[in-house]
Amino acid sequence: MEYIFVLAMVGLAAAMVGGGLFFSRLVAPHNPGGNKSVPYECGEQPIGQAWIQFNVGYYLFGLLFLVFDVEAALMYPWAVVFRSTGLPGLIEMLIFVLVLVIGLIYAWRKGVLEWV
Amino acid sequence: MSIIIPEIIVLATAFAILIADLFMNERTRVYLAPAAVAGLLLALAVMVVHTPASGALIGGRFTMDAAGWWFKILFMISALIAVLLSMDTLDGRARVRVRGMGFRGEYYSILLFSVVGMMFLVSARDLATLFVSLELATLPLFVLAAWRRDDPKSGEAGLKYVVLGALASAFIVYGFGILYGLTQSTDLETIAQRLAGERAPAFWLAAALVLAGAGFKLTIVPFHMWAADVYQGAPTPVTAYLSVGSKAAGLAFAFQVFYRIFGDALPHWDMLIAIFAALTMTLGNLVAIVQHDIKRFMAFSAISQAGYFLLGFLGAAEEGVPAMLFYLLVYIFSNLAVFACIIWFENETGKGQIEDYRGLSLSNPLMALGMTLALFSLAGIPPLSGFVGKFFLFSIASKAGFHGLVAVAAVNSTISLYYYLRVVRQMYIEPVDERVPAPGSSVSIGLSLALLSVPVAILGILPTVYEGIHAATIAWLASMPQG
Amino acid sequence: MISSAVYTVMFYGLSAAVILLAVLAVNLRQLLRAALALMGMLSLSAGLYVLLHAEFLAGVQVLVYIGGIVVLIVFAIMLTRSSELLEDHPRPLAQVLGALLSMFFLFVAALALRDTRFPVQVQTGPPVDDVRQIGLLLLDRGATGYLVPFELLSLLLLVAIIGGTVIARKVAPPKQPFTTGGDARGETITESARTQRDIVPGEGAP
């Protein structure tokens, strides 16, 4: 099967990461605690906790990304058959994209794309 | 081509509102609601005047038939009234304003998108369209339920609705997947043909899953638990639309699935449907008795009404479907009329307990009269349309031999009269202990209440509407493959 | 070529891993770890799709679910104040009932699916070039095409954009939230009524 290389690749990657972790654990000294568990802040004393609340803007960006992600996934099969479906297929795809472009314009005008 | 024009009009209105909203300021946005009303009216007019009652487009993937025509009319009427009822709240004309209810353009446009989804739902003839349009019909409802962003209850309503709605969708998709596996087709007609005859065990699993999903949308009793919190937490105009729109969509989905896919298996499920109907009516009613919040009260009332709808699935399609459609029509008018009063009252006083309605007959007799009429219709008091609708449904159950169920339904109807009368008693009989400031009036709500009260009063007396629905059902059945 | 025994072993191995990760995603108390388990579960499902010759689906799975939805879930977790779930103690009765119900459903579903002969099984050989077929079906306007759900999907995505924006966007409260039409009297009534309304019952008399 053609995926044997993918499988081998996955196995190799897992072995490299897992092996690295395993050997460092095996070889390196291990005494946690104290200043070691403090988040790294370029040598400064960290203020507050490592867990910070994200700006909601990230979420909206993620949402927009997801929507256009789905769109891209659906455009891929169209691109494969573009030659045989011709103009009607192009129009159908344009309608699909146009609706989402309206969504993008909407998000843009509403300031979702502005970074605060 | 003309059968899709109403959908296109509604869709175009939704886009026009969405885009226009981007370039308007708060002051000019009051024109958005009239635009939505105009679009819906135009689509309704085209539907009534121009659209043939049957036809097929896109290779039969978008199909119109007589029963679907009635469903679409009902969807558009619900949305039209819902827009009229939302106007005051959203435009800030209410005396007590609901905070956090901005975003008018988005509100009306996604409400219209939900209508488009419902309209495609009844026109769908394959599993994929059926599912995507059901999602398109319900996703806006999730958003609308959470519309009040500074009200945790509204957020909770939206969250509960979206989680349980997703669960219902998961059930439906699982069931659809099995159906596809069994028949290798997504076409409803082909599925029904290939399923006929011997039934594999997986068929029953698929049927149970799809029915559970439909039960969620219709608030049938083991799947009803989202309704009360969502109805209570959602902004009141949204609750009004939810109570009729989501129910109509759920019924349309059940209609599509029951009659188009499971058609000849339906008689085997009589007993099950009867049990669900009895449970739904009884539980909804019993819990409604003890409610104080009027929206929660209406939620349980809506649950018990869903039980009556189920009676229509018991008999033969040529009687069951018209009875269901007619009762849906009556239910939509009556329920929206009640909500018109609730929204108006909340706008004027900011209160929503049943006890707050005390003395309404003195301070605003017309509103009190409209609400009383609608509540009596929901309870099924004889001259009103609700009585006739229930009568048809009961007679179907009785003809199918479910006399015990008819008795349960009749008892439930009596119980429901008791709790609907609780509201009426507050408005008319309870002594007024403090001087209630006279609430003002509202053009859009008064207009919609007047528009709704007329059919509530006369639909039961005028036989033409029921006859029209009956004739449509016969035409639809004749157009079905092999009956 | 992989023999069918290896294929079977891989299928069941992947399935077991998917189930294990799904259970972890539900049960881990640390939300980010649960999200990570979810991501692993979704990637392994993509592996299952590849085994079943649904390469396009596997690609979509990686692109949309792992690249999009898990990222969104992580953002949503980061929006909250704490990374750990609050302790939740469902009543023992509810726990037992829930467990029984789930077991019952699993049992019935497994039995029903085991005893059914799906016609799809009879079909031999993998479908050829499925992306091409999907593309043709999506854009086909004929009786076997899926043009309607395809176009409806764009509307669904649009509603998702609008809904997400409305619910999640952080807006400063506008100076004039609603059009008043210059109705000054209404404004004053609103203020008094609003303060009345804001009094929570049980917090003292107005």
Could you outline the blueprint of secondary structure elements for this entry?
The complex is a heterotrimer of chains A (116), B (483) and C (206).
Chain A: H1 4-27, H2 56-80, H3 82-109
Helix pairs in contact in A: 2-3
Chain B: H1 5-22, H2 32-49, E1 55-57, E2 62-64, H3 66-91, H4 104-123, H5 127-145, H6 152-183, H7 188-195, H8 201-218, H9 226-233, H10 236-261, H11 270-289, H12 294-311, H13 317-349, H14 360-363, H15 365-379, H16 385-399, H17 403-428, H18 443-458, H19 464-479
Antiparallel strand pairs in B: 1-2
Helix pairs in contact in B: 1-2, 1-4, 2-3, 3-4, 3-10, 3-13, 3-18, 3-19, 4-5, 4-10, 5-6, 5-10, 6-7, 6-8, 6-9, 8-10, 9-10, 9-12, 10-12, 10-13, 11-12, 11-17, 12-13, 13-15, 13-16, 13-18, 13-19, 15-17, 15-18, 16-17
Chain C: H1 4-27, H2 31-51, H3 55-79, H4 92-114, H5 119-122, H6 130-139, H7 147-168, H8 184-198
Can you give me a brief rundown of this structure?
The complex is a heterotrimer of chains A (116), B (483) and C (206). With 483 residues, chain B is mainly alpha-helical. Chain B has helices at residues 5-22, 32-49, 66-91, 104-123, 127-145, 152-183, 188-195, 201-218, 226-233, 236-261, 270-289, 294-311, 317-349, 360-363, 365-379, 385-399, 403-428, 443-458, 464-479; strands spanning 55-57, 62-64.
Tell me what you see in this structure.
The complex is a heterotrimer of chains A (116), B (483) and C (206). Chain A is built from three helices and no strands. Chain A has helices at residues 4-27, 56-80, 82-109. Chain B is mainly α. Chain B has one domain. Chain B is built from 19 helices and two strands. In chain B, α13 (317-349) runs antiparallel to α15 (365-379). Chain B is globular, with a radius of gyration of 21 Å. The model of chain B has no long low-confidence stretch (mean pLDDT 87). Among the domains of chain C are: 1-84, NADH-ubiquinone/plastoquinone oxidoreductase chain 6, subunit NuoJ (Four Helix Bundle (Hemerythrin (Met), subunit A)), CATH 1.20.120; 127-168. Chain C is 70% helix and 0% strand. Chain C is globular, with a radius of gyration of 26 Å. The relative contact order of chain C is 0.05. Chains in contact: A-B, A-C, B-C. At the B-C interface, α4, α5, α6 and α8 of B face α4, α7 and α8 of C.
CATH architecture label of one domain in chain C: Up-down Bundle
Report the count of strand segments of chain A. 0
Helical proportion of chain A?
Answer: 55-70%
CATH superfamily of one domain in chain C: NADH-ubiquinone/plastoquinone oxidoreductase chain 6, subunit NuoJ
What proportion of the residues of chain C form beta strands (DSSP E)?
Answer: under 5%
**Helix-and-strand structural type of chain A:** mainly alpha
Query: Tally the helices of chain C: what do you get?
Result: 8
Largest sheet of chain C: none
Fourth CATH level, the homologous superfamily of chain A: NADH:ubiquinone/plastoquinone oxidoreductase, chain 3
